[in-house]
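Researcher: Here's a chain I'd like modeled. Treat it as a single chain, no partners, no ligands.
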Amino acid sequence: MKHPCPSGVVIALAAIALGLSGQSAASARLAQELNRRFPEDTVVQSNLLPAIILASALQQRNITRLNQQLDAHPPYELGEISNSITFCLYLSYLRGQAYLVANRRAEADAEFQAVLDHPGLVRNAPIGALAHLGLARAYATSDSASKSKVAYQDFLALWKDADPDVPILRQARAEYRKP
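Model: Modeled as a single isolated chain. Structure tokens:
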């Protein structure tokens, strides 16, 4: 059996991006391709495909579909797939986002913290910085204002040299300034 990496991870990341951007049909096609090519691969079946499904459900704000995915924790979530491309903890990050949408703040906090607790696995993946923002949002909605401010500061420090017009950065700055 061919291992999915790195091509499988690239396909999965593309499918997640498509799902999050509202292109669920294209995301589903890539998921079907992964499933067809790697029907018995544990990483694909337990980690990559659930992440793709969760990304589309997140964008659609499909609470029923989100709840179906939230309680499944793959046993190999912390495993490294490839030396060149990392996928570790993407599913945890996406679950954190889903928990926020589902108003399950404590669980969101735990998922984002899991990403932050494993910088060696996350390496330079975008979720490393974005987990700070997710954590800030989870704290903000659970009346932990001081913790929220610190998490926003951590995110903003990481993005201090970013293009100031990046939408997520503008949004984070506006959220940070709220009392």
